[in-house]
Amino acid sequence: MLCPCGSAQTFALCCQPLIMATKSANSPEQLMRSRYSAYATQQADYIYFTYAHSSQAEQSIDDIAQWAATTKWLKLVIHYASDHKKDLAKHNNAQVEFSAFYQLHGQIWQMREKSNFVLEDTAWRYLDGEVSDSKTLNKPKRNESCFCGSEKKFKNCCAKVF
Ligand SMILES: [Zn+2]
Ligand SMILES: [Zn+2]
To answer: How far is the CA of 155 from the centre of ligand 2 (A)?
Structure first.
């Protein structure tokens, strides 16, 4: 199976080793991708444990699991990732901006978020995020261009996930 994060690699070579904790993320973007893939494959424990320690108290594995299960994850688009190597020379945090497309209660949603990541115990973790946009999108017709911005026809893009 292709990785849910959209890398065009197989899940087994991309995000799965991170989710199975056999490999750790070498950048905030990779962690971000693996967290998305964990939502898509309903691995709530991984999402919980990749929160920064200070953020874990506000989270519950049950809530994460429920949200992951009621949501159909369609696509991840990374808009921006800060240069974490440069960032690390100055401070131990980094930013990634992304849109997640998902289907919930029969509607397509786009959530755009700027996320903050911190390096804790030599591992990148998700600290928090600021949602800049959250909206519903119209489902395109099969030959119309896809809502996710890929410039492909809907039938050749996110329709495959429905
Ligand atoms: Zn992946
Ligand atoms: Zn698409």
So the answer is: 9
| Total tally of structural domains belonging to the chain | 1
What's the predicted TM-score (pTM) here? 0.93
Nearest ligand to residue 148 Cα: 2
User: What pLDDT, on the 0 to 100 scale, is given for residue 83?
Assistant: 83
Please name which ligand lies nearest the alpha carbon of 160: 2
4 domain residue, yes or no: no
Q: Please list, in sequence order, all residues whose beta carbon lies within 8 angstroms of the beta carbon of residue 145, skipping any fewer than 6 positions away.
A: 151, 152, 153, 154
Is 5 a domain residue? no
CB 139 within 8 A of CB 113: no
> Is residue 8 a part of any domain in this protein?
no
Domain that holds residue 69: 16-161
Distance in Å from the first CA to the final CA of the chain: 15
pLDDT tens-digit map of 109-131: 999 999 999 999 889 999 999 99
Instruction: Kindly state whether residue 2 falls inside one of the protein's structural domains.
Output: no
CA of 31 to the centre of ligand 1 (A): 9
Q: How far, in Å, from the CA of 152 to the mean position of ligand 2?
A: 7
- Could you count the other beta carbons within 10 Å of the beta carbon of residue 25? 19
Q: How far is the CA of 93 from the centre of ligand 2 (A)?
A: 30
For position 47, which CATH number holds?
3.10.450.50
